[in-house]
Here is the input.
Amino acid sequence: MSAWPLLGIVVLVAGFAAGVNPLIVIIASALTTGLAAGLSPLHLIAALGKAYNDSRYVSVIWLVLPVIGLLEREGLQERARTLITRVRAATAGRLLLAYLALRQITVAIGLTSLCGQAQTVRPLIAPMAEAAAQVRMGPISDRVRYLIRAYAASADNVGAFFGEDIFIAVSSILLIKGVLQQSGLDIAPLRLSVWAIPTALMAFTIHGLRLWRLDVRLKRLARETPP
Amino acid sequence: MFAAIAVRSLRDHANRRRCGNAAFWGLLAISFLVGSEIGDLANGLLVLALTALGSSAMGLGSPRTTSPAAREACARVRGDVIFMPALLIPAIAIAGTLTLAKIRMHGAPIVDPRQVTLIALALGIVVALIVAMLRFRPPALAPVEEGRRLADAIGWAIILPQLLASLGAVFAVSGVGAAVGHIATTWLPLGHPFAAVLAYCIGMALFTMVMGNAFAAFPVMTAAIGMPLIVHRFGGDPAIMGAVGMLSGYCGTLATPMAANYNIVPAALLELPDRNGVIRVQIPTAIPLLVCNIVLMYLLVFRF
Here is the structure.
């Protein structure tokens, strides 16, 4: 068995580490891997094209851009900020903690599309968190702003990843079942879901604690970087 | 949609790179319109062209949009009604997922049951757009211009998810998975159950970081280490191994730029200057969580 195709992985890691544009890194890695495995260049490009075409469904979410853009034009983010300033107990950290819980619970009961980066975090959660921070601390510097946004995105990711396997009809559970089936084991999806719960709780605890303490960190950063 | 964005990009004379933008969005439009008709090789060349354009020839367009002050005024006037179209999207997506697969015409379902969620989502988006247009009456070109504004902000990152899927296919065709499994079992000292658990979980996380998603790593790691060692040699429970193993992979997903739609695309969507901003914030969760996962698996997998 040839280990030469692993050269592609070296290219991938080196490319990302060097900060080269990811598009170029990915294509370079694909070409290296394919050529190292002895594929003809034409065959390789065709394989690339077929996979790209077959995965177009992944991009369906981009259809949301005109709607979100339109609503932003009409003041969506501003309204979200106003709404959150009315909630006096809101801080950036607590808001994101609540969102983490919401995301994890809704995904665990199968409502994966209810929230998401494009339809929820960008238009609503991130501006709300920024506004909550501003209410508490006054005008905030760009560094504080970007940190809040990064945490908002992270709340969505952690919630989605570690809530997902609790729902039995999800593709990851089916994949695990399928792989184990190929070794002759018939595992009930429900057992897999149940064993996803301890990790889900640990994820919520670890990330939740960091979100709970986010406000302290933001205050310190705000002091160091005036607006 | 991408065709409309391409045309408007071309006519945006304020953008010095408008031809690059227009070409990029135009190629995307072609992919979505006739991708299945033009054959694999043409698609492959299209991908190469998109990469070349995306990495060098794109800039930010300047569509006409409202100023922050105007938006503040709008927000005050409209009130909370503005959230309605945004909330319609998930509402219709869920309603559609639950009902569309059951509707039948002439004995056959009107919607492919495997694609119900995606179709319901798209339906929700279209309805939300119509409602927003009717309620707020913006200029007719506003949806395209605003869509262009957001698309330009995200830029080339828009094709990252699809590109990564393509890379996964090339890896599969080239036998990368088998090679990794072979190396793992040949070079690692796996005589003790804890070593097997450690190798499996860390292997899942690392391979996920390389591949960008745990689904690609799971079959390889399970075949190389999980099944032969943890289950067969040391008598571990396969359900626990599978579930906790997959979640160890997810710890890797939190920390890698290869998981583009979770880490890079949101950074672009939220207009962060640091492309890896989201990853930086997630790593201090990913590492402790992986450690906890390893301990959890070791404590549980051999007890059931």
Strands of chain B lie at 104-105, 108-109. Chain B touches chain A through 137 residues (CB under 8 Å). The mean pLDDT of chain B is 82. The longest strand of chain B covers residues 104-105.
